[in-house]
C-alpha cells in the first residue's frame, strides 16, 4: 500500500528480482548483522500429523492474481490449495497479531502497538509442551536479534544507491507482545535471515517458525512477479532441503489480507511440505479457515493448550482437514461456498485495547474455552480473571490523549541483552524492571488519568509475577488464587 512509487524507479533500473544472497542457506552482506550463533538443537517433540510448522506470510496481492503466476501454479501442484482461507480484519498488522495471540484486540491500523504482559501468545503454548526453542521467528531484514523498533532502514541493495526500509514491526507478530519482547530468552528468538542461514546449516531449525520476507520480497512494495521470483529463489530450494522440509513438515504459504475491503477477506493460501498426506498433493481443500486456524491446527497437532480467544472460536478456527482427521477434531462443516460465512472484512468497529476510539483494557481470555488441542487456557502473567467485560469504551481521540497501546515499553537488545530505554512516552519509571515480566497490578487504573498508567504500573511492579496456567479441573481454584494475589 505504501511506497510503491519509491520503488518503481529502482525496479526500472534493476532486474525484477535482485537476489540478496547466493542462496537462502548462505549468509549475505546485504543484511545488517551477521549471525552470532545458531539456535541450540533441541529434541524433536512429535506431533500427531507434523513435527514442524512454518508460516510464510505474503502481502497485498489480489486473490485472483496469484493463480496466474507459474510459480504459484507450481507450488499449488506440490501442495494443497486452501480455497476457503480468510483474513480476520483489515489492515495488515491486526492480521499478523491474530496469528500469534488469537485476537486483534480491536486494532484497525498499522501504527506502533505493544501489548501488556497479560496477553499470552503461541509461545506460551509451545513452551509448555517443551517444544523448546520453538519460537523461531525469522524476519528477513531485522538488524539484530530481538529488535523491537518500528522499522529498519538500510542500504538499498536493489538499486545500490540510497537507503530503503525493508523491515517493519507490524509484520512481526510475536514482538508486539511484551510477554515476548520483554523476555530476553524469547525476544532473542526473533532472528534475521543470516541467522536462518546459520540455523539451517547447523540443521537446527526450530519446530515452529514464522517467516516474514522483507517489504519487497513479500510483494508489499512490489509486484506478483517480484514476489514469485523471490519464492523461486527462497522456497524452491528449501522445499528440496531435508533440513527445512522433511516428511514431517507442514508449510503454510498465505497472505495477511485481501486487497478489496468491499469483499469478504479471502486470502490465497497453499499448504506445502512433505508432511502433507501424499494423496492430497495437488488437490483443493474448500474447508473454511481463517488465520486463527493456524493456531488451532498447531494446538490440535501437539495437544497444546489454547489462548482462549479466536483460536477457540468454533466458527472461525477450523483445523486443517487432514490434521483434524489425524487428531479426531470435529470441524464445523463450513466451506468457501457456505452462504453463512462470517464477514471478516470489517475493521474499526470492534472495541478493544488497540482501538483508539473504542478502547477497553485487555480483557481476560475465556478460561472455560476448550481448544482443538484440549489443553488448558493460558492467561498471561498478571491476568485479572474477573475483567471479562468493559461497558464504556474510551475515545482517546476525543480526549486528545494517546491510546496507551501505542506506548513503547522500550525493550532494547542492541547490546545483545535487555536494556530498558526510557520510554518515548509517559513512563518515567524505566529503571530496572524484572526482565521476565511483571504483574500488571494497575488493571483498574483506567478510570481517570489514563495516559500510560497501564504501562507505567507494569514497569514498576518488580516482583510477584505469577504464572497463570489453569488446567480445566483446577480452573476455579486457580482463578481464586489469582484474584487473591491481585
Ligand atoms: C477478495 O476475496 C474475494 C472472495 O471473498 C475474491 O472473490 C476476490 O477475488 C478477492 N479480491 C482480491 C482483490 O483479492
Ligand atoms: C516446480 O518447480 C521445480 C523447481 O524448478 C521443478 O523441479 C518442478 O518440476 C516444477 N513442478 C511443476 C509441476 O511445474
Ligand atoms: C551479533 O552481536 C553483535 C554484538 O553484540 C551485534 O552488534 C550484532 O548485531 C549481532 N548480530 C545479530 C545478527 O544479532
Ligand atoms: C519508519 O519509521 C519512521 C519513524 O517512525 C516513519 O517516519 C516512517 O514512515 C516509517 N517508514 C515505514 C516504511 O514504515
Ligand atoms: C542510510 O542508513 C544508514 C544506517 O542504516 C545511515 O547511517 C545513513 O545515514 C542513511 N543514509 C541516508 C542517505 O539516509
Ligand atoms: C520419514 O523420514 C524418516 C527419516 O528419513 C524415515 O525414517 C521415515 O520412514 C519416513 N516416513 C515416511 C512415512 O515416509
Ligand atoms: C464486506 O464484504 C461484504 C461481502 O462481500 C460486503 O457486502 C460488505 O460491504 C463489505 N464490508 C465492508 C465494510 O467493506
Ligand atoms: C466467534 O466468531 C463469530 C464470527 O465472528 C462471532 O459471531 C462469535 O461471537 C464468536 N464467538 C465467540 C464466543 O466469541
Ligand atoms: C477425513 O476423514 C473422512 C472420513 O474418513 C474422509 O472422508 C476425508 O476424505 C478425510 N479428509 C482428509 C482431508 O483427509
Ligand atoms: C471519537 O472522537 C472523535 C473526535 O471527537 C470523533 O470524530 C469520533 O467519531 C469518535 N469515535 C467514536 C467511535 O465515537
Ligand atoms: C492486563 O494488563 C494491563 C496492564 O497492566 C491492565 O491494564 C489490564 O487491566 C489487564 N487485563 C487483565 C484482564 O488482566
Ligand atoms: C511469568 O512469571 C513467572 C514467575 O515469575 C516467570 O517465571 C515467567 O517467566 C513469566 N512469564 C512470562 C511470559 O513473562
From TrEMBL:
Residues 424-438 have a biased composition (Low complexity). GO terms for biological process: phospholipid catabolic process. Residues 1-18 form the signal peptide. It comes from the Eukaryota. Keywords: Hydrolase, Signal. The keyword Kinase does not apply. Residues 439-450 have a biased composition (Gly residues). Pfam families: Phosphoesterase. GO terms for molecular function: hydrolase activity, acting on ester bonds. Residues 394-413, 424-458 are annotated as: Disordered. Gene3D superfamilies: Alkaline Phosphatase, subunit A (3.40.720.10). This is Acid phosphatase. It comes from Rhodotorula toruloides (Yeast).
Amino acid at each position: 500500500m505504501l511506497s510503491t512509487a519509491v520503488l518503481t524507479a529502482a525496479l526500472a533500473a534493476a532486474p525484477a528480482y535482485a537476489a540478496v544472497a547466493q542462496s537462502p542457506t548462505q549468509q549475505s552482506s546485504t543484511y545488517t548483522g551477521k549471525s552470532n550463533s545458531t539456535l541450540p538443537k533441541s529434541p524433536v517433540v512429535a506431533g500427531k500429523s507434523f513435527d514442524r510448522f512454518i508460516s510464510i506470510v505474503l502481502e497485498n496481492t489480489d486473490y485472483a492474481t496469484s493463480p496466474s503466476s507459474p510459480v504459484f501454479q507450481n507450488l499449488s501442484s506440490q501442495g494443497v490449495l486452501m480455497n476457503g482461507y480468510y483474513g480476520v480484519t483489515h489492515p495488515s498488522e491486526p492480521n499478523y497479531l491474530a496469528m500469534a495471540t488469537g485476537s486483534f484486540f480491536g486494532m484497525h491500523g498499522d501504527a506502533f502497538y505493544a501489548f501488556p504482559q497479560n496477553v499470552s501468545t503461541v509461545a506460551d503454548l509451545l513452551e509448555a509442551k517443551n517444544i523448546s526453542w520453538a519460537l523461531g521467528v525469522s524476519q528477513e531484514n531485522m538488524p539484530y536479534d530481538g529488535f523491537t523498533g518500528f522499522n529498519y532502514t538500510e542500504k538499498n541493495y536493489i538499486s545500490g544507491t540510497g537507503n530503503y526500509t525493508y523491515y517493519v514491526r507490524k509484520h512481526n507478530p510475536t514482538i508486539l507482545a511484551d510477554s515476548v519482547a520483554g523476555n530476553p530468552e524469547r525476544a532473542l528468538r526473533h532472528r534475521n535471515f543470516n541467522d536462518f542461514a546459520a540455523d539451517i546449516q547447523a540443521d537446527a531449525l526450530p519446530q515452529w517458525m514464522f517467516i516474514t520476507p522483507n517489504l519487497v520480497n513479500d510483494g508489499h512494495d512490489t509486484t506478483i512477479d517480484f514476489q514469485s521470483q523471490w519464492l523461486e529463489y527462497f522456497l524452491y530450494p528449501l522445499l528440496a532441503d531435508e533440513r527445512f522440509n522433511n516428511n514431517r513438515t507442514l508449510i503454510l504459504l498465505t497472505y495477511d489480507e485481501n486487497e478489496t475491503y468491499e469483499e469478504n477477506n479471502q486470502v490465497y493460501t497453499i499448504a506445502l511440505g512433505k508432511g502433507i498426506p501424499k494423496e492430497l498433493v495437488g488437490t483443493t481443500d474448500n474447508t473454511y479457515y481463517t488465520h486463527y486456524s493456524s493456531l488451532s491446527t498447531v494446538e490440535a497437532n501437539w495437544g497444546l493448550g489454547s489462548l482462549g480467544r479466536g483460536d477457540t472460536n468454533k466458527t472461525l478456527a477450523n483445523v486443517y482437514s487432514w490434521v483434524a482427521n489425524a487428531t479426531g477434531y470435529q470441524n464445523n462443516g463450513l466451506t468457501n461456498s457456505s452462504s453463512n460465512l462470517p464477514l471478516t472484512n470489517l475493521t474499526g468497529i470492534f472495541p478493544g485495547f488497540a482501538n483508539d476510539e473504542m478502547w477497553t483494557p485487555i480483557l481476560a481470555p475465556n478460561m472455560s474455552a476448550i481448544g482443538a488441542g484440549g489443553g488448558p487456557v493460558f492467561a498471561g502473567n498478571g491476568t485479572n480473571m474477573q475483567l471479562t467485560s468493559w461497558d464504556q469504551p474510551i475515545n482517546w481521540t476525543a480526549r486528545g490523549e494517546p491510546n496507551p497501546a501505542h506506548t513503547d515499553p522500550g525493550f532494547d537488545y542492541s547490546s545483545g541483552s535487555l536494556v530498558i530505554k526510557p520510554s518515548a512516552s509517559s513512563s518515567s519509571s524505566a529503571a530496572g524492571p524484572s526482565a521476565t515480566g511483571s504483574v500488571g497490578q494497575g488493571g483498574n487504573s483506567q478510570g481517570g488519568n489514563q495516559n500510560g498508567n497501564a504501562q507505567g504500573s507494569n514497569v514498576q511492579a518488580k516482583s510477584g509475577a505469577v504464572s497463570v496456567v489453569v488446567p480445566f479441573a483446577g480452573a476455579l481454584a486457580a482463578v481464586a488464587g489469582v484474584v487473591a494475589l491481585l
